[in-house]
Write a structure and sequence with these properties.
Layout: E1 2-5, E2 8-11, E3 14-17, H1 19-23, H2 32-43, E4 47-50, H3 56-66, E5 72-74, E6 79-82, E7 87-91, H4 96-106, E8 112-117, E9 120-123, H5 128-137, E10 142-143, H6 147-153, E11 158-162, H7 165-179, E12 183-189, E13 192-197, H8 202-213, E14 220-224, H9 230-235, E15 238-242, H10 247-252, E16 255-257, H11 264-272
Helix pairs in contact: 2-11, 4-6
Length: 282
């Protein structure tokens, strides 16, 4: 359950993986090879941590499919939850006042917004973006008259803006100027702009989870594909990218595994945890 590097055997005790375009293939499913490798790693005592930008409600279906019992990270690190009883053990939401101001700043642009609180995703209208998101993540959307009014009552774990990449990039730059001291702005897909608290990231949440388990950063393997995975890729003993990842993510990675459609997570586990090199990564 480890690998020899420079004459020293490194024992990896935890692997954290992104869901979309990493563990999930382009059909949105987990390959049998990935399932088998995860189960073998778990049987060997390795902690398996799902780290997703999705809501916990959306990740839960895959946690149950894999039969995982370890802590899970959702909303890019805003929530840490225990899937055994759905208990929230870490909450790093955006301040209500900041959320309200941000929503007012976005309003003139007519951009679709998802508001995340707990296991709920809120929208104002059943737009094509809302319907697409609901189908993509297999979840129900809760519709409200005003997200701004909602922000006075409930804190947002994150906000998600959906539109074409060019328009979102322009809006991101404008919002960064005004809210950059309080918020992070990252793309999880070209048409998904994620907004969350400045102190929140997958890497920060993963460090907290590792501390709970008594695991050191150098004993961790991480794998992802997008900008929102960079924080955890940079903090791990081995930070890996799937070969379909964004170029900036691959440049930051210690290792490039196979693509999400080639069971890249399984290859990573086989090589660095189970000791079976299998296919050659790059």
């Amino acid at each position: 359950m480890g690998i020899v590097i420079n004459g020293e055997k490194i024992m990896y005790k935890l692997i954290a993986m992104d869901l979309d375009d990493t563990l999930l293939n382009d059909s949105g499913t987990i390959s049998e090879r990935n399932k088998d490798a995860i189960r073998r790693a778990e049987a060997a005592g390795v902690k398996i941590i799902i780290t997703s930008g999705r809501s916990y409600a959306s990740t839960k279906q895959f946690i149950q499919e894999l039969g995982l019992a370890d802590l899970t990270i959702s909303l890019n690190g805003a929530y840490i939850q225990d899937p055994r009883d759905d208990r929230l053990v870490g909450d790093f939401s955006i301040e209500k006042e900041i959320t309200g101001k941000l929503l007012k700043a976005i309003e003139p642009y007519g951009i679709h917004v998802n508001f995340y609180n707990g296991e709920h995703v809120y929208c104002q209208e059943p737009t094509e973006h809302a319907l697409y998101y609901s189908q993509l993540n297999r979840i129900e959307i809760d519709y409200v008259d005003s997200l701004w009014e909602l922000s006075k009552k409930k804190p947002a774990g994150k906000l998600l803006l959906i539109n074409n990449e060019g328009k979102l990039e322009a809006i991101r730059d404008l919002l960064r100027e005004k809210f950059g001291d309080h918020l992070n702005f990252l793309f999880s897909k070209p048409f998904f702009l994620e907004i969350f608290d400045r102190s929140t990231s997958k890497g920060a949440a993963l460090l907290k989870v590792a501390e709970m388990y008594g695991i050191k950063p150098e004993e961790i393997i991480t794998v992802g594909d997008g900008e929102n995975d960079l924080s955890m890729i940079k903090m791990a003993g081995i930070g890996a990218a799937v070969s379909n990842a964004k170029e900036t993510v691959k440049q930051a990675a210690d290792y490039i595994t196979l693509s999400n459609n080639e069971s890249g997570v399984a290859h990573l586990i086989e090589k660095f945890i189970l000791g079976n090199t299998g296919d050659v990564g790059r």
